[in-house]
Amino acid sequence: MTENTTHGNDGQGHGALAGYRVLDFGWVLAGAIPGMVLADMGAEVVKVETRQRLDYMRMGRPIVGDQPDPEQNPMFHNVNRGKLSVTLNISEPDAVALAKRLVEKCDVVIENFSPGVMDRLGLGYETLRAIKPDIIMASISSTGQDGPLRDLRAYAPSIGALSGLDSTMGYEGGGPLGLKHAFGDICGALHAVFAIVSALYHRNRTGEGQYIDVSMLRATVVTQGAGLMEHALTGRALQPRGNYDPTMVPYGNYPCAPSPDGNDDKWLSIAVATESEWQGLVSAMGSPAWAKDQRFGSQYRRQRHRRELDALLSQWTAGHDPDVLTDLLQGHGVAVAPVLSAEERLFHPHFMERGLYRDIDHPALGAEPIFNLMWGLSKTPSAVGRHAPLMGEHNREVLCGTLGLSEAELAKLEERQVVY
């Protein structure tokens, strides 16, 4: 464990990982989330950035004004909160030397460049291990550090396609539409967190560091246990099937009365697994005559006639507010929930009471909602201690405080754009 310097983050220094220091070369979503989690859990996380190649999440349309501003991206703010930022121009040998000196002060190094990049920069695992034998290094990549697809150029849709996940997403009888969401990035990132804390536990027992190879592709494949098992047992591969479920009917999202201004569609998720739940649904609807039709007299028959059932159920839900139907159907033992928009989720009373978000003041945007970690620890609670860093905000604190550079040395490095 490395003794942390004080850096004004009230949320850090008291969590489960207090006392650990992380050097974070991660960028975009997959690379940023592991350091985010470790920072929330008390570790000091130093994010290495460069003005020569901005993190993609620092770019995009500005929230305030019309000029590009790397300090205004809300997603960057969410997944980089609690970190310190140093700007090192790693193309300069002196910047690489500074990074190596930081490694000496750290417990963990995180990166998600393409395989081989860290080696070419002079910052590969074998080099870092020679500097600090018990260092733990986690490399997150699309397809892993070796194998035929090692050098594949890939984005999130590529991972969805290769993993087989996209092949299951679409309408029944149609082609694959895909998830169109960075699911693979998040899978890889959270698996990396688990691997890092496991490696820290191992190091605490043995004194040994180690290298962690995280494949976003592999992490995404293992989330599809049902599909893998079905193929292993039956030889059938899952195909796009819309909202069809082989065991539950009705099952899907059903239209409700639109918002009062008529601008927003409203939907309700309904899932019925048992006969008693079906009877609860029928009772909540006021026992309409169509519900007694022999086509819907058993789960087997309802499954055979699910399209007719969905059409009739949609006619009923379309005349009601989703929140009213949620209370009604839940009272009759039916699994049901409104389909919330991002804004509705933000202000939902359950999420507000449970602390799904908290407001953090950021110098560029003021107060903004930042999501909290997905778990709570009773003895060592996590905390979002501070806003996401401005670029190079902690150059002096880290390079002079942690490494011991003088103000004059730092000024010269900045003048030469080594610290940049």
Question: Would you give an account of this structure?
Answer:
This protein is an alpha/beta fold and 420 residues long. It has helices at residues 28-40, 74-79, 93-104, 117-120, 125-131, 156-162, 183-206, 216-221, 225-234, 275-284, 299-304, 306-317, 322-331, 342-347, 349-354, 395-402, 407-415; strands at 21-24, 44-49, 84-87, 108-111, 136-141, 210-215, 251-256, 266-271, 335-338, 357-362, 366-371. The strands form three sheets. Strands 3-2-1-4-5-6 form a six-stranded parallel beta sheet, with helices on both faces. Strand 10 (357-362) and strand 11 form a beta hairpin. Helix 1 (28-40) crosses helix 7 (183-206). The chain is elongated. Residues 5-11 have low confidence and may be disordered.
Please compute the radius of gyration using only Cα atoms. 26 Å
Order of helices and strands: EHEHEHEHHEHHEHHEEHHHHEHHEEHH
Q: What profile does the largest beta sheet have?
A: 6 strands, parallel
Binned, the helix content reads: 25-40%
Could you give the count of β-strands?
11
Tertiary shape = elongated
Mean pLDDT: 94
Layout of helices and strands, plus pairs?
Blueprint: E1 21-24, H1 28-40, E2 44-49, H2 74-79, E3 84-87, H3 93-104, E4 108-111, H4 117-120, H5 125-131, E5 136-141, H6 156-162, H7 183-206, E6 210-215, H8 216-221, H9 225-234, E7 251-256, E8 266-271, H10 275-284, H11 299-304, H12 306-317, H13 322-331, E9 335-338, H14 342-347, H15 349-354, E10 357-362, E11 366-371, H16 395-402, H17 407-415
Parallel strand pairs: 1-2, 1-4, 2-3, 4-5, 5-6
Antiparallel strand pairs: 7-8, 8-9, 10-11
Helix pairs in contact: 1-7
